[in-house]
Amino acid sequence: MVAWLHILALGTFFGATVLLLAFLSVESKEAGSRQAELARLLRVYDPVAIGALGVQIVTGAVALTEWKARLGKEFYAQLGSLLAGKLALVFLLVLASTYLCLGLGHRFVRAFEAGEPPDELGFRSFERRMKFVSALVLGLTAWIAWRSLDLP
User: Fold this and answer.
1) Which helix (H) or strand (E) holds 30?
2) What is the percent of the chain with per-residue pLDDT over 90, rounded to a whole number?
3) Using an 8 Å Cβ cutoff, are 11 and 138 in contact?
4) What is the pLDDT of residues 27-51, one digit of tens each?
5) Cα dihedral value 100, 101, 102, 108, nearest 10
């Protein structure tokens, strides 16, 4: 059950981030309506992404605890180096995702709702940062999933 919940959360997180990046990749002529659409999208994306990432972390920790109990003293010998690399990548993913959702997304939504959206030049810069960090988050997520294929 935990494994399925972990995979479901992974799919939710990855899919939501793909949708965000797809939205950011489509060019639009009118910045005002695009800002409103992006604010609406981020109001949904931010809690979904952070929630799904949280579920992945908790279910991953539960699975790790079960493996440790099952393998006993052999746990570190069999999984130590693989898990160290994976957990380092997870740490980077959490940092990048938090920056994407809270450092960029939440701040933009609050400014937009307060009637202080960025000017067109500022918005284009913001979109570039969102695209870069979204692509980084997707890359890290794919790399972590790929490394996980080696786990028993």
Assistant:
1) none
2) 68
3) no
4) 877 767 899 999 999 999 999 999 9
5) 90
Q: What one-character DSSP code corresponds to residue 29?
A: S
**H helices present in 26-119, as ranges:** 31-71, 75-98, 107-113
* Contact (Cβ atoms closer than 8 angstroms) between residue 5 and residue 52: no
Long-range contact pairs involving 19-24 (C-beta distance under 8 Å, separation at least 24): 19/45, 20/45, 20/130, 20/134, 21/131, 21/134, 21/135, 21/138, 24/127, 24/130, 24/131, 24/134
Instruction: Kindly report, residue by residue over 62-93, the tens digit of the pLDDT.
Output: 988 887 888 888 877 777 777 888 899 999 99
Instruction: Report CA torsion sign: 79, 81, 85, 91.
Output: positive
CA dist 96 and 130 (Å) reads: 11
- For residue 132, the Cα-to-chain-centroid distance in whole angstroms is 13
Say how many CA atoms lie within 13 Å of 41 toward its Cβ: 16
Residue 146 has pLDDT above 80, yes or no: yes
Q: What's the length of the chain?
A: 152
Which residues does 98 contact at the CB level (< 8 Å), separation at least 6?
50
